Amino acid sequence: MAVHDHPHRRPGFRFPSPHRAGTAPVSAEPATAAATETRAYVLAGLRLLTGFVFLWAFLDKTFGLGYATPSGKGWIDGGSPTEGFLNGVAVGPMESTFHAWAGAAWADWLFMLGLLGVGLALIAGVGLRLAAVAGTVMMALMWVAEWPPAQHLSDGSPSMSTNPFADYHLVYAVVLAALAAAGAGATWGLGKVWARLPFVSRNRWLL
């Protein structure tokens, strides 16, 4: 008796095809949309919190609200927002330079306008690129003023630095850059309205 092979049949286990009748392919679109929306809300929350940090620093130093600035020592009372911090610089390559800048009117105005501008831009969700640049410059100068690489101050006492490079100034700078790159002003902010303004459309660096 002859045995006939059937070449179209293959023994063994087969995975079911997702294209068979009665089944539908699983779509990743809803999951992707949900992740995008969640990311937008997370970035918006981070933007608002960071903006409040800068804006609160401006308000406290201006009015002497009793936190970092004692009552009666605010800018409107004749106090200097930069004098105490810059005179306290005790280490780093710009120690003498910061001492010379301490209490100067131009330094006070630039510092306070920087805090106000960055804070308002982040809260409103507009001009995030400018805010990132201005905020990064401020954070870089404050990083140099505290000079984390040094283990000892100029007088030989411990600097109490906990890390030779990374500190909160660098973290804030990276956050500002990330918010600007992600266009985080559209959610819970005026970013979309701002981007549609004619002069902003013609000058994209204002986004």
> What sequence of helices (H) and strands (E) makes up the elements?
HHHHHHHH
Number of strands: 0
Number of helices: 8
Uncertain segments: 1-13, 15-24
Termini separation (Å)? 84 Å
Largest sheet: none
Strand content: under 5%
Can you tell me the overall shape? globular
Structural class call reads mainly alpha
Helical amount among residues, as a percent range? 40-55%
Note down, in words, how this protein is organized:
The chain is mostly helical. It has helices at 29-63, 83-87, 95-101, 105-124, 128-146, 168-182, 191-196, 198-202. Helix 4 crosses helix 5 and helix 5 (128-146) runs antiparallel to helix 6 (168-182). Residues 1-13 and 15-24 have low confidence and may be disordered. The chain has eight helices and no strands. The radius of gyration is 28 Å and the shape is globular.
Task: Provide tags for this entry.
207 residues; mainly alpha; 8 helices; globular; disordered N terminus
Quick rundown:
Helices cover 54% and strands 0% of the residues. The protein is mostly helical and 207 residues long.
Question: What layout of secondary structure does this protein have?
Answer:
Elements lengths: L28 H35 L19 H5 L7 H7 L3 H20 L3 H19 L21 H15 L8 H6 L1 H5 L5
Helix pairs in contact: 1-4, 1-6, 4-5, 5-6
